[in-house]
Amino acid sequence: METIKITELDYSRLSNLVESTKKTRDEELLNLSALKEEIARAEVVSPEKIAREFVTMNSLVEILDLDTNRKMKIRLVYPREANFKKGNVSIFSLLGSALIGCREGDRIYFNAPSGRKNVQIIKILYQPEANGNFNI
């Protein structure tokens, strides 16, 4: 399993979010568990030093579903901003948890309710840190 990189701010916010969230449904517990695993294996770096090819919170990413060959543009957001129809994918979703800290070109495998999913990060279209936004 490859090491992922997340910023100190994302690490702090996500760790606090995981700890403060009380889940009741099995599906949500699974998603929270996936995010905890991702955070635990992450290399934490300063926001100013994260390379632009890594997915951070609020990044806009073009991904390819390798099973359907469908491309999608999604923004990785906190749960309160999630709206799949608008392309805003929650960090609590299985896709969101799988994306955080990965880089352009990575192939990501995760278990979704519909079965095992295989996606590839084609391009990071926007990363806040690459644009000088270190606090969002």
User: Which overall shape is indicated by the principal axes computed on the Cα atoms?
Assistant: globular
Mean pLDDT: 88
Strand order of the largest sheet: 5-4-3-7-6
What is the number of independent domains?
Answer: 1
The share of residues in helices is 25-40%
Protein architecture, described:
This protein is an alpha/beta fold and 136 residues long. Helices cover 26% and strands 32% of the residues. The strands form 2 sheets. Strands 5-4-3-7-6 form a 5-stranded mixed β-sheet. Strand 6 and strand 7 form a beta hairpin. The longest helix has 16 residues, at 26-41.
Q: Main attributes?
A:
single chain; 136 residues; alpha/beta; Chitinase A, domain 3; 5-stranded mixed beta sheet; two-stranded parallel ribbon; 3 helices; 7 strands
Topology:
Elements: E1 4-7, H1 8-20, H2 26-41, E2 42-45, E3 60-65, E4 70-77, E5 88-90, H3 94-99, E6 107-112, E7 115-126
Parallel strand pairs: 1-2, 4-5
Antiparallel strand pairs: 3-4, 3-7, 6-7
Summed up:
The protein is α/β, with parallel strands linked by helices and 136 residues long. The protein contains three helices and seven strands. Helix 1 (8-20) packs antiparallel against helix 2.
